[in-house]
Amino acid sequence: MPRKCQAFFVLWDNHPAQVESLWLTPLGRHRYRVESIPFWAYNLSRGDTVDCHPDEDGLGLFVGNVLAKSGHRTVRVAFKVRTGLASPHGKKLLAWLRRHRIAFERFEPRMIGIDLATQRAYDKLVTYLDAIPKSAKMIGEDGDPQPKHGVGGADVERRRQIKSTRKRAPRTT
């Protein structure tokens, strides 16, 4: 099994964190599979294949483009109450995710990133979240609302189709 490595995803200009650290598995030729659940990056999910390159100083590895989408979706949920995930509704949500065997990662004390491998799992989660009362002060967002688009909003499938249909010029000797 290939060794996992860490790479950085550059966030938008006004984001306080500036970069997000992601765990990846090397696939060869600058290609990597995302292993962690992104908390801040949009249009990026666990299992996606990305290209990465070192920065100009060679000190870090940085995510460039999404080369292939995995079909997974990322949903982020946060509780604005002081107790966050330790609130009654936070505990219930975590128990529900475990019961349904849905992968998640915590960003204590208030936020979780949720990995949804199928549309069915996504639909079940949305139904569950819709039933949580407003008094829970929960907010959520779809971190990968366009599962066929990459981090810059480009259509990954279309880009791959265009690339594969380009005709190469005949070789001349």
Please provide a written account of the structure.
The protein is of the alpha+beta class and 173 residues long. It contains three helices and nine strands, in the order ββββββαββαβα. The longest helix has 12 residues, at 88-99. The model is unreliable at 157-173 (pLDDT under 50).
Helix content: 10-25%
Unreliable spans = 157-173
Give the beta-strand count: 9
Strand order of the main beta sheet, please? Answer: 1-2-3-4-5
The percent range for strand residues is 25-35%
Q: What string gives the helices and strands in order?
A: EEEEEEHEEHEH
What count of structural domains? Answer: 2
Radius of gyration, Cα only, in angstroms?
Answer: 18 Å
Q: Mind summarizing the main beta sheet?
A: 5 strands, antiparallel
Q: What fold name stands as the CATH topology of the largest domain?
A: Alpha-Beta Plaits
Q: Tell me what the CATH architecture of the largest domain is.
A: 2-Layer Sandwich
CATH class of the largest domain: Alpha Beta
Please work out how many helical segments DSSP would assign. 3
Q: What do the pLDDT scores average to?
A: 81
Q: What distance lies between the first and last C-alpha atoms, to the nearest angstrom?
A: 42 Å
Q: How would you classify the helix and strand content by structural class?
A: alpha+beta
Q: Name the overall outline.
A: elongated
